[in-house]
């Protein structure tokens, strides 16, 4: 793996780092509009990572408008966006933004979960009330006669 590459156990840093390196190469002019990027398998070998890491790096570059990818074809460099997004590794080398976004997502899911539990509890109470009312309305007349005789 090349110098300056993050810890290989931290896949988030790896794909962000690889995307930044490819983006930098595009911005330097190493790749120009219409050029094909190296094949995923070649980048897997070059960086010593899984194809999933390379695919995630390509996803970042697609989202930022640097490349286009077609199924079963290599990724092609697009015309540079007018105002390329800043390199996330340079602006947030710790990955703090992504961590905060993940935490925010999890907190929203927790809130959804709490609301769901509250709704289920309410529904269970409603079902119990309805069952009691149904039982009360469907008692047989013999039950009423029996209750009258015990009251006398």
UniProtKB/TrEMBL annotation:
<feature type="region of interest" description="Disordered">
    <location>
        <begin position="77"/>
        <end position="96"/>
    </location>
</feature>
<dbReference type="InterPro" id="IPR000524">
    <property type="entry name" value="Tscrpt_reg_HTH_GntR"/>
</dbReference>
<dbReference type="InterPro" id="IPR036390">
    <property type="entry name" value="WH_DNA-bd_sf"/>
</dbReference>
<dbReference type="Pfam" id="PF00392">
    <property type="entry name" value="GntR"/>
</dbReference>
<keyword id="KW-0663">Pyridoxal phosphate</keyword>
<dbReference type="InterPro" id="IPR036388">
    <property type="entry name" value="WH-like_DNA-bd_sf"/>
</dbReference>
<keyword id="KW-0805">Transcription regulation</keyword>
<keyword id="KW-0804">Transcription</keyword>
<feature type="domain" description="HTH gntR-type">
    <location>
        <begin position="12"/>
        <end position="80"/>
    </location>
</feature>
<protein>
    <recommendedName>
        <fullName>HTH gntR-type domain-containing protein</fullName>
    </recommendedName>
</protein>
<keyword id="KW-0238">DNA-binding</keyword>
<dbReference type="InterPro" id="IPR051446">
    <property type="entry name" value="HTH_trans_reg/aminotransferase"/>
</dbReference>
């Amino acid at each position: 793996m090349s110098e300056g590459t993050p810890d290989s156990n931290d896949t988030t840093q790896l794909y962000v780092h690889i995307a930044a390196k490819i983006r930098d190469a595009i911005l330097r002019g190493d790749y120009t509009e219409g050029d094909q990027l190296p094949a995923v398998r070649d980048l897997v070998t070059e960086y010593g990572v899984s194809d999933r890491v390379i695919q995630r790096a390509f996803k970042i570059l697609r989202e930022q408008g640097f490349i286009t990818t077609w199924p079963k074809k290599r990724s092609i460099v697009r015309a540079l966006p007018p105002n390329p997004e800043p390199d996330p590794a340079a602006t947030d080398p710790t990955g703090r933004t992504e961590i905060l976004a993940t935490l925010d997502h999890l907190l929203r899911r927790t809130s959804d979960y709490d609301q769901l539990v509250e709704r289920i509890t309410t529904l269970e109470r409603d079902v119990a009330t309805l069952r009691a009312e149904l039982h009360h309305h469907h008692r047989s007349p013999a039950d009423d006669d029996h209750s009258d005789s015990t009251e006398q």
